Structure to design on (288 residues):
């Protein structure tokens, strides 16, 4: 690769069950060993599935404590990142955390996920990230830079909520003198590796399933001042016989933020067989 990536973004499911040994394996295999900044968020396997389903809620507590509170204290400051959370200490035996635990536009699990639970002497309140995201987008309204919104789950009503929020932001920013470049990335459905670009007030907004570790898929986004592209990859298992390359390029979308009309969207799937790639433009009215 001529230019190394600026960062690696991991959209959730860092572990299977949030167990401490799985967290340590992720830390050693990725956070410590990978030679570039990693912007990771939690998925449903890391904490949502484990609330009230793991002894003393220790699994969810472990992921939130180790990954965010302890690690982010130094890692986040070194990267000039601020996390959306608050720590309340009433005594050594009465500590509480609350927030969405989002940073930059790196959300956790889902844009509207919220829960409360206790583990030992610590109370946790996970808030929806909707207000956090609205505030961040408002700050970016007059800035001409790409906005990359990352989370783990974005299906059904959650997808509709995110679309409405983005469409409202685009409309409110329509007189800022530049066209917005915004995209959403997620990975909850591990078998999915595709892009759906929806036109909102004349602005193309890609919604991307980035691939997943269990499915050996990942994506690379290249951005420059005037050009942008998204490349889909498949990583081959070490035991695949007869394959010369460990990485297979599945396809590339040039001009990631292209042009569109207000009533269309496009679909692109990264498939193993390049001849099966289909790019369809279908008419659809987007209520935004």
């Amino acid at each position: 690769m001529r230019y190394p990536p600026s960062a690696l973004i991991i959209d959730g499911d860092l572990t299977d069950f949030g167990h401490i040994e799985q967290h340590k394996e992720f830390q050693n295999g990725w956070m410590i060993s990978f030679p570039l900044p990693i912007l990771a968020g939690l998925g449903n396997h890391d904490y949502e599935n484990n609330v009230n389903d793991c002894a003393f809620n220790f699994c969810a507590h472990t992921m939130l404590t180790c990954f965010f509170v302890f690690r982010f204290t130094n890692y986040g400051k070194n990267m000039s990142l601020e996390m959306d959370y608050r720590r309340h200490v009433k005594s050594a035996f009465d500590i509480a955390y609350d927030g969405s635990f989002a940073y930059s536009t790196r959300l956790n699990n889902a844009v509207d996920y919220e829960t409360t639970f206790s583990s030992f002497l610590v109370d946790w309140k996970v808030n929806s990230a909707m207000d956090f995201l609205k505030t961040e987008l408002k700050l970016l309204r007059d800035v001409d830079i790409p906005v990359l919104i990352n989370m783990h789950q974005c299906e059904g009503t959650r997808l509709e909520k995110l679309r409405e929020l983005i469409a409202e932001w685009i409309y409110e920013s329509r007189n800022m003198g530049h066209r917005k470049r915004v995209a959403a990335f997620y990975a909850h459905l591990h078998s999915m590796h595709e892009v759906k670009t929806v036109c909102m007030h004349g602005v193309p907004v890609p919604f991307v399933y980035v691939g997943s570790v269990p499915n050996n898929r990942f994506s690379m986004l290249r951005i420059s001042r005037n050009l942008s592209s998204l490349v889909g990859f498949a990583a081959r298992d070490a035991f695949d016989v007869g394959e010369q390359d460990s990485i297979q390029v599945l396809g590339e979308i040039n001009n990631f933020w292209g042009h569109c009309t207000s009533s269309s969207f496009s679909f692109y799937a990264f498939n193993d067989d390049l001849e099966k790639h289909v790019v369809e433009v279908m008419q659809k009215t987007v209520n935004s």
Observations:
- Helices lie at 20-31, 58-78, 130-139, 157-172.
- Residues 58-78 form the longest helix (21 residues).
